[in-house]
Amino acid sequence: MVKYYESKTIFHFTWDQVAQGFWKKYPNPESTHVLSEDTIFREIKDNKLFSRRLLTKTNRVPKWGERFIGSPVVRIVEESVVDPKSKTLTTYTRNIGYTKVMSLVEKVVYRPSEENPEWTVAERSAWVDSKVMGFGLAIQAFGIERFKKNCSKMVQGFNFVLSAMFPQPASLTAQHQIHQQPQSKFKDAAKKASELAKAKANSLYATCEPS
């Protein structure tokens, strides 16, 4: 049985920005495993941009996997469709090497967030399969776990690229940092402010009180 995984990521950038940044994801500090990328096909049809890219990546192979995989280098085909009218960027990715050992198919749809149109949501789906007799389920489980870790790195790397391309105003950055502060800090600040107000009120009352 094929293993399935899905997740959703919010990027605090507009869809237009994400669609531009998508083509410049590499290199970034989290993508050292991406060795090369080449665009092998591109055309505009029905006002949509169709592209196909060939990526070469490397992943450390666990000891038990060395008997199945001779080289950690694998080639990935990435096909994408950009529809500016509906504001969707859809990608389909699959490996073209070692498919009998493990095949991974990924679909990602980037679209404006319903929560905030200034943000972009990425809905990700992945299917992992293995045809190695006796080891299929273990390899599938390993593939899903590694995919989850790689997703986390991908999000961090993409955010790094987007932040470099589209720096946010200092006011928005500060506001975001404030919202990220623990609630306990707000409580402590409120408590101190209340105590200070009481102290000033008492002092003022003592000054105005007749002798």
UniProtKB/TrEMBL annotation:
One of its GO terms (cellular component) is mitochondrial intermembrane space. InterPro entries: PRELI/MSF1_dom, Slowmo/Ups. It comes from the Eukaryota. The lineage of its organism: Eukaryota, Metazoa, Ecdysozoa, Arthropoda, Hexapoda. Residues 2-170 form the PRELI/MSF1 domain. This is PRELI/MSF1 domain-containing protein.
